[in-house]
Design brief:
By secondary structure, this protein is mainly beta. The protein is about 0% helix and about 40% strand.
Length: about 140
């Protein structure tokens, strides 16, 4: 049935369960220094539970700084001091301004600036959230 209502690309299942967005990136990805967009936005009303940053290959070369977010600096989910980029391991971030429910569909970006030249680094980012689907 046609509704003449624009759809959304936000990822939201109709049942009450934890949802997630996942993105893997490397130090060499095109655009990583200015931010790489996740494939889907967070839906309006989504409540973020946490953001997992799993550095599977330590970032090397220069001074890497990893952030994740939806604001202009892309750092309101994961800030510059939340992750140790130069060591492999997982960090769960449960603080930040982005923990409030999303007012609209929100595009999310991962960003890694590197003072100097990067030579290695891979991270998997998983944002866990629940949509506003009270029934």
């Amino acid at each position: 049935m046609t509704t003449n209502t624009a759809g959304t690309a936000a990822r939201e299942l109709p049942t009450q369960q934890v949802h997630y967005l996942r993105k893997t990136f490397t130090y060499a990805d095109v655009g990583i220094a200015s931010g790489i967009k996740f494939p889907n936005p967070l839906p309006a009303g989504a409540q973020i539970l946490n953001t997992l940053v799993n550095v599977t290959t330590a970032f090397a070369g220069g001074t890497p700084v990893l952030t994740v977010g939806q604001n202009v600096n892309m750092n309101d989910f994961v800030t510059t001091s939340d992750v140790t980029e130069t060591s492999a391991g997982a960090t769960v971030v449960t603080t930040g301004a982005a923990l409030a429910p999303m007012a609209t569909d929100v595009d999310v970006y991962a960003k890694c600036t590197n003072v100097g030249t990067g030579t290695a680094g891979v991270a998997v980012i998983v944002i866990s959230y629940v949509p506003n689907n009270d029934a």
